[in-house]
C-alpha cells in the first residue's frame, strides 16, 4: 500500500489533499501539526513512502519538521507545501532535506503528478534484486548499487533517494558534462512540473556531503554553460 502522511494545520486544505490522494490509491494519514506528525511517525509500525509538509504552522514549522524527519530516515519522500513565493523558502526546504516543493494554490492534477513522480523515485530507491555490478568505485568513493550506499574512504555518506539517484547518474557517466535538463529528466522524470533550479539546490546539498571543501569542489564540479560533472582527475 502506498502510504502518505499529510501535515497541514488547515483542515479544509488537508481534506482536499487527502480526498484526491485517496482517489488514486494512496493510504493517507493526516496530522494537524508538526508535533502530531512526529508522534505519529515515531509510533508508526507500517512505514510511510511520502510526507506532504506545510511550511507555515503554529508551533514547530515545516522546515524544522523536515529536518527532524530527515534525522529519522533518508528514504522518506518529502514535499514541502507553501503559499509563499520567495525563492529562499523553496531553497531552505530543499537544503533541509526536502525532495520537492509545491506552491499553493495548486490543482489536483499538479498535486497528483508531483506525488506520483516522487513515489516512483522512492520505489526506485529500494535495493535492486540483481544489479549487473554491485560496486562502482571512483577514486576514494565506492557506490554500491545493491545496498544503495556511498562510501568515502570507507566511511558511509547518508544520502536521500534523490541524492543517490543523482550520484548514480554521475558515477555511470564519470568525467561527462551532464546538463541540468538531462539530470532533471533522469532523476525527476520528463513529466516533472517544477523548475530546473531544484537540480542546483540538490547539487549544493550533495557537495556538502561529498566534498572536503564544498565551497571549492573538486569532484562534483560545475561545467559553465553546460551543467555539472563528476571529476575523477
Descriptive key words:
233 residues, five-stranded parallel beta sheet, four-stranded antiparallel beta sheet, 8 helices
Tell me about this structure:
With 233 residues, the chain is α/β, with parallel strands linked by helices. The protein is 40% helix and 22% strand. It has helices at 11-23, 34-43, 62-72, 87-95, 108-125, 161-171, 180-187, 197-210; strands spanning 2-7, 26-31, 50-54, 77-82, 100-103, 135-138, 141-144, 149-152, 155-157, 178-179, 220-223, 227-230. The strands form 3 sheets. The protein has a 5-stranded parallel β-sheet, sandwiched between helices. Strands 6-7-8-9 form a 4-stranded antiparallel β-sheet, with helices on one face. Strands 10-12-11 form a 3-stranded antiparallel β-sheet. The chain starts with a strand and ends with a strand. The mean pLDDT is 89.
Provide a short characterization of the protein structure.
With 233 residues, the chain is an alpha/beta fold. 40% of the residues lie in helices and 22% in strands.
Order of strands in the sheet with the most strands?
A: 2-1-3-4-5
Individual helix count: 8
* Span between termini: 45 Å
* Residues in β-strands, percent: 15-25%
Question: What structural class should be given to the helix and strand makeup?
Answer: alpha/beta
Apparent shape: globular
**Major β-sheet annotation:** 5 strands, parallel
Query: How is the quaternary structure best described?
Result: single chain
